[in-house]
Each structure stands twice: as C-alpha cells, then as structure tokens.
C-alpha cells in the first residue's frame, strides 16, 4: 500500500449544546470533563435569534478537541457505547464521521452522577492522510487532489479495520 494513502485520525471533537439554559450548560461542562479529564471551551452565540431567546455573547454550548493518542482512546470508548455499530448516514462524502451518544452512562468507565441528569453528547471524527498539511500551511494553501481525498467507503473501511465498527443501512 502507498504510504501517502494511509488514513489516520486527525482529531475528535466532543460537542454539547445547552441553548440558553446556563444551568444545563454547567452540567454539560462537568460531563465532558468527567469523560475526558480535560476542561472544555464554551461556545458563544454570534447572532441574535429572538425566537430562541439568544443574543450575541451568550454561552450556548461546550466543545473539546482531542488529538493524538488521547483521541484514539476516547474514540474506542465512544464506539463501545454504540456497541461498535453505526449507520452509514454517520459518514459524509469527505470521510468525516459524526454520531451521537444519547446517554452518557453508556460510555464505559463513566458512572452515573446524581448531580448530572442523563444527557447526551455529539462526537465528530476528522480523518486525514499524509499531505493534508497543504490545507493549513501558511504559503500557497490549496486542497488535496481528487485522488488523495478520503471517500466515504475508505473511512468506513478504516473504522472497521482499526476499531471493529460495523455499519448498518
């Protein structure tokens, strides 16, 4: 196999949305810290949406990005929470995987906390290949060629091979 075609996990983003309820947001931040051991960052709204009671500068969620070995360890636990089964609709055409966990008590190693109600989180997995640096470099930014982009079937094969994930229609 060509070394430049090898797929790996670039990052995992854990997201929790609370809306305008600040009490729920604090519990969500505690939940993400309990799962990973790292403090998440609050997400702030940029727009005013009167129907939802949102205004600019209001914290509405929390997110955490993991890279490297901690990301792989947490991803294994998240996939176990889903019994290593995901629908094919979780994978987009560019190889990114997004899925949710409805109840945090399904995650191995996480115990129920009476202070935190049963709530869920959203996980996004971004895959990469060697050479994807051309997207973020300072000079002459460009996109990878069509033959070098990660396709849906390649990302599904990667998850099946490395994590034993099964895909359902």
Topology:
Blueprint: E1 8-17, H1 22-36, E2 41-44, E3 59-66, H2 68-81, E4 85-87, E5 97-101, E6 121-128, H3 152-163, E7 166-168
Parallel strand pairs: 4-7
Antiparallel strand pairs: 1-3, 1-6, 2-3, 5-6
**What's the CATH first level?**
Alpha Beta
Order of helices and strands: EHEEHEEEHE
Helix content: 10-25%
Strand order of the largest sheet: 2-3-1-6-5
Shape: globular
Strand content: 15-25%
Based on secondary structure, the structural category is alpha+beta
Low-confidence blocks of residues: none
Number of helices: 3
**Which fold name corresponds to the CATH topology?**
50s Ribosomal Protein L5, Chain: A
Question: What is the radius of gyration?
Answer: 18 Å
What is the CATH architecture assignment?
Answer: 2-Layer Sandwich
Number of strands: 7
End-to-end C-alpha gap: 29 Å
Task: Walk me through the structure.
With 169 residues, this protein is an alpha+beta fold. The chain has a single domain, classed as Ribosomal protein L5 (50s Ribosomal Protein L5, Chain: A), CATH 3.30.1440.10. It has 3 helices and 7 strands; from the N terminus they run E-H-E-E-H-E-E-E-H-E. The longest helix has 15 residues. It starts with 7 loop residues before the first strand and ends with a strand. The mean pLDDT is 91.
């Amino acid at each position: 196999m060509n070394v430049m075609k090898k797929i790996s996990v670039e990052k995992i983003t854990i997201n929790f949305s609370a809306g305008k309820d600040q009490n729920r947001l604090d519990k969500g931040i505690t939940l993400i810290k309990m799962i990973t051991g790292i403090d998440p960052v609050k997400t702030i709204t940029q727009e005013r949406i009167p129907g939802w009671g949102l205004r600019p500068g209001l914290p509405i969620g929390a997110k955490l990005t993991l890279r490297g070995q901690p990301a792989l360890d947490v991803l294994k636990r998240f996939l176990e929470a889903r019994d290593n089964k995901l629908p094919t609709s979780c994978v987009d055409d560019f190889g990114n995987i997004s899925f949710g966990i409805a109840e945090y008590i399904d995650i191995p190693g996480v115990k129920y906390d009476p202070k935190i109600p049963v709530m869920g989180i959203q996980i996004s997995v971004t895959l990469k290949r060697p050479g994807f640096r051309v997207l973020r470099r300072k000079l002459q930014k460009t996109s990878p060629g069509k033959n070098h982009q990660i396709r849906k079937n390649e990302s599904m094969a990667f998850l099946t091979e490395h994590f034993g994930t099964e895909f359902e229609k």
